[in-house]
Design goal:
This protein is an all-alpha fold and 309 residues long. Helix content is 73%, strand content 0%.
Amino acid sequence: MGTSAATSGATTLVRTRRRRLNRRALAGYAFVSPALVFLLVFALFPFLFTLWVSIHDWNMLTPIGTMPFRGLDNYRYLLNEDPLFRQTFKNTVYFTVGNVGLSVILALGLALLLNSPIKLRPFWRAAFFAPYITAPVAIAIVWRNILDPDYGLANGVLAQFGVPAQPFLSGLNQAMPSMIAVAIWQGIGYYMIIFLAGLQAIPADLYDAAKLDGAGAWTLFRSITVPLLRPTMLFVIVINTLNSLQVFDLPYVLTQGGPVNQTNTLVFYMFNTAFKFLRMGRATGMAVMLFLVILVMTLIQLRLLREKE
């Protein structure tokens, strides 16, 4: 009888604990459910809808239920029959490589400079960061006027040094480098702040110990700064790559994709295809392929730059 009563009591205790755990689990699900609903409604559903539209032909004027099914024809057309898609993809890669590569180098250089004891450090940090918090459209309008080949300030300054007027945004060979320069000017302050945070998180004792062993400035940078900045550099490169692959505002305001599509990026072409030519199926096909490119590049960067365990 004593054993039976003990067993019954243990069973009751287990059931009570399970009920308590179930109540706690329900409370946890209740707190998490708004975020899950938000994720499903504003992230997962639009993505699935994009995939669905990409295999149909839709002009946004007819009901969704009447969209003609096209299968992989939109993807096949973009890859095999649309030379402008291939050109915009190359332009986007060109812009991304130039912007990311130069931004990382210059931002790190500025961070190293402003992390040293120089005069007016708070002022310089604020000055370099200010363009990042300015509206991109406003920045593009200002730089479009500065780089104007006829009355722009840039050619006015060059004329003072006897340099002929340059076409800048209207030149076939200068339009994309000019747009990259504007993008670097806009974003370098943000990445500089991120690198500054990473530099200030490195213990000073490591540098002091290395200096006692006779290490020079280059050795300190190569052996201490760069390895310990690996996570920060990974963040900067990944975020800058994502932003560069999705650039839209700069080509839209600066050049409208010209001259002769030299600055026409993938997102800008996607925008024109969807809202100007009303070919939403092809535009969503571009969006899906851009998503795959971003995913692959992010995974490669995480693989190459992740911190060694």
